[in-house]
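Hey, weird one. I pasted the Two-component system cell cycle response regulator DivK sequence into the form twice and got a warning about non-standard characters only the second time. First submission, copied straight from the form history:
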Amino acid sequence: MARKVLVVEDNELNLKLFCDLLRAHGFTAEPVRDGREAVACAREFQPDLIIMDIQMPHVTGYELILELKADEELRRIPVMAVTAYASREDEDRIRAAGADAYVSKPISLMRFMEAVNALL
């Protein structure tokens, strides 16, 4: 059975790239364009991994990571943050919120898949 990955990303091109890349590597990818739907989608889809953009309108990926990690049912799911924030302080803050991995944009496809495979 294919591993399931929830991809939370508001940029259509990035969302398509991440989902296509995951599917090409045998994963089932579920796209979420609006961060406000991410927690409900995680409950319904029960992913093995969540890939989370940090900079999104309405709710940030940082806030969503905190919400996911505070939830008894969802906290076990590893979260990979994908962000244009590239400073050491940003990475530390995002990891402290509960992200299990951190990949900065623009992404290297090889680095992206290495991070996904390391979490699964």
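That's the output from the first submission. The warning seems to come from a hidden character in my clipboard, not from the data itself. The first strand starts at residue 4 and ends at 8.
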